[in-house]
Amino acid sequence: MTAEADARRTVTAAIFGTLATQAIGAAARLDLADRIGDTEASTDELASACDVPAGQLKRLLRALASLGLCAERSPGRFALTEAGALLRRGAPGTLLNFAKLMTYQDFQRNWLNLEKSLRTGRPAFDAEFGQSVYDYMSGKPELAALFHAAMRKSGHDEVAAAISAAYDFGRFGTVVDVGGGDGSLLAAFLDRHPHLTGTVFDTEAGVARARETIAAAGLEERCRGVAGDFFTEVPKGADLYFIKNVVLNWDDERALQILRRCREAIPDHGRLLIAEPVLPDTANADTLNHEATENPYLTDLHMLVTVGGQERTQAEYTALCARAGLRVTEVVPLAREMNMALVEAVPETAA
Q: Model confidence at 288, in pLDDT bands (50, 70, 90)?
C-alpha cells in the first residue's frame, strides 16, 4: 500500500467511526450478544427473537463481523468473538451498559454540536436541552440507572487492587471518597484494608445507593454515607481524601472549587489522592497508549460536549492544585490498560 493510500485509509477509517458506533449501539439495544449465546445462531432465529426482518438483521450482523465482534461461521450463522462477548449481560468486564449509554441518542446529539462547544467552551448538552446532564438524568431514573451501571464498566475490585498495589494505604486510618457514588469502590478498598474506616460523600441519591452497598458488604461498623455538595463543603478531618473521575467532569473554575473544599477539610498531615487519566505533555498517534481501553483525547472531547469538563496533563493538575492551596508530590501511573494515574497532593503548609 502506498503512503497516500495508507493516509486515505486512516482518514476514512476515522470518518467511518460514527457508523461503527451506531452499529454497536443497535446490537446492544437488541441484546444480540445474549441472543447469540455461547455457541452460534442463525440469522432467522435472531431475526425472530429481535423482531427485525432477517434481511436487514443479516446486514447488521455482517457489519459487526467486519468489526471483529462476531464471525459468520457459515452463510447466515454467527458466533460471538471474545470481543463481542463483552456485550453480554453479566459477562466479566461487560461493556453492554457502557455501549448503551455512549450510543444513547441524546448523548450522540452532543457531538453534532462539537464545534459550538469548541468555540464557547460550554457543554453542548446544556445548550441543546436547557439543563445540565445531571439535572436531565435526575428526571429520567432509567437513564440514571444506566449511567451508574455503565460507570462500573471497570470492576471496582480490579481498580482497588491496582490502586492498592501502587499506593501505600497503611499510613492512613480514615478515608473520605469525595463523589463516591454508590460506594462500591470505597467498599472494595475497605475490604482490602481492614484497618481503614471510610466515608462516602455524595448527593442524597448517591448516598442512598451507597448505604445499600455498605450494608450488603457488611461494612456498617467501618463505613458511613454523608450527603452534601462538594462545591460547598467536604467532611473534615480524615487522613486521606480520595477523588476518582470527578475533577475531569468540570472546567477549571468549578474543579478549583472542589479542590479548595478538599483543602479546607484536609488536616496538615493529610493527603489528597486524585485518580484520573493524566494526559501526556504532547499528543502523537505513535506515542499514544495503545494498551488503554479508551482514547483519552476522544474522552476529553466527550467531557467537553457533555458536561463541560476536561482531562488534564500533569502540569495542568499541578497548576490547578496550587491554586487550591495544594502541592502535588507525586504522580503514579497505574497499569497501562487502565489509562489512569494517581495524583497525590498535600496541603501547601505541610512539609
A: low
Could you give the residue ranges of the DSSP H alpha helices within the chain?
Answer: 3-15, 17-29, 32-36, 43-50, 54-66, 96-102, 105-112, 114-120, 124-129, 133-138, 141-150, 156-166, 184-192, 204-216, 252-265, 296-307, 314-323
**Dist CA 28 CA 98 (whole Å):** 9
Using DSSP's 3-state secondary structure scheme, residue 141 falls into helix
- pTM value is 0.86
Q: Which strands form 41-42's sheet, in the order they lie side by side? A: 41-42, 77-80, 70-74
Whose cell is 462500591? That residue is 184
pLDDT in tens, 195-225: 999 999 999 988 998 999 999 999 999 999 9
The whole-angstrom separation of Cα 109 and Cα 306 is 10
Rg (CA), the chain: 22
Task: Summarize the confidence of residues 145-161 as an average pLDDT.
Answer: 76
